[in-house]
Design a protein that fits this description.
321 residues; Arc Repressor Mutant, subunit A; 2 domains; six-stranded antiparallel β-sheet; 7 helices
Amino acid sequence: MDLEDDTYGSIFKALQHPIRRRILKMLDAGPSSYTDILRSLNIDNGLLNYHLDNLGELVSKLPDERYTLSEYGRAAVALNQRVEEPAPREEVRVMEHKIDSRVLKAATALLLVAVVTFAGLYIDLNGKYSALTLANEDTKARLTESETKLEGLSTLMALETFVKESSDFKVVYSFTSSYYQSYVTYLTSNGNVTKRFDSSGLPWVFVYVPEAGATLTLIAIVQSGEGTKAPITVQKAKSGRLGLDVISKDDVVFSGEAFPFAEFSVPLPESGWYLVSSQGLIDGNSLGYHYSPAEGNFNLHLQIQLSLNGERTLFGASGSY
């Protein structure tokens, strides 16, 4: 608490007791000695000293040891007079008029603040409403787009059946297979020259296309020191496993060769199973199936993707054979 706060506290404390108010009135008439104050109040020394101490900064001593009012003491006396002697009626009316004027101005200012506040609130709420309206329209458009895509995916539901029937069946956006083959020439014990064939990986892959009008994209990377080309064919199949009468040479929809890199786009005429082979044409009948792979050494990496109307789509892939 600073000196100003202490002084205001002293003023109010001094005015609380009638003896201290009498001391202030005496000193307001002029400086008085300790003895004059004691005789006028008719109290003992201890009580007078107590009240003089409580007056604090409101009184001060002159060089001749008489007590007089300080600036704060005169302010305390003036305040006490305002309390004990009310203003004349005319002055009260002027004060009431001033008070009414201040109240009116304050009320007007509050009203203006309220109007401005509510106007800003209205503008803010209106902006938020417009933003919510736009967001709602955007959400409706997204829902409509999603419903359209769901309708387009309805033909893919048949994939679930194949997934349940075949443990090695995969529903994918793309499928990659690797195949390696080599021929080794060597001499037999009787001096004849013969070849031994060795291979690993998947020589063919079955894919299930759920909708007609799709495009199969084949990306082939072939490594071969002898320049051997890998024969790539796509044939319509009756199922996802190679067996009797599953595939025929009459069902070929694409045939090509790849080395060292090739990309093929194969339009598919209808939905259903297809066989993608790196062994060339495969022919099947009631007795079995046969094919004639290219003689040579090569290592093939083949990536298969399916697209519909220019956008990739889900399809099934199986490595069984």
